[in-house]
Amino acid sequence: MLDGFALILLLAAAVAFIILATAKLDLHAFLALLIAAYLTGLAAGLDPAEVASLVTDGFGGILGYIGIVIIAGTIIGTCLERSGAAIVIAETILDYVGEKYTTEVMAITGSIVSIPVFCDSGFVILSGLNRSLAQRSGLSLSTLGVALAGGLYVTHVFVPPTPGPIAAAGIVGADIGLVMLAGILVSAPIVFVAAIWADKVASNYHIDPNPEMTIEEIKDEYGTLPSPAASFAPLLVPIALIALGSIAAYPEAENPELITGTLQRWLLFLGDPAVALLIGAFIAFGIVPQFERDVIDDWVSDGITNAAVILAVTGAGGAFGEVLSALPLEAFITDTLGGLGIGLFAAFVVAAAMKSALGSSTVAILTTASLVAPLLGSLGLDTEIGQVFTVLAIGAGSMTVSHANDSYFWIITEFTDMETPTAYQAWTLATLVLGVSSILWIVVLRNVAGMIV
Question: Per its UniProt record, what PANTHER family does this chain match (predicted)?
Answer without folding.
Answer: GNT FAMILY GLUCONATE TRANSPORTER (PTHR30354), PERMEASE (PTHR30354:SF11)
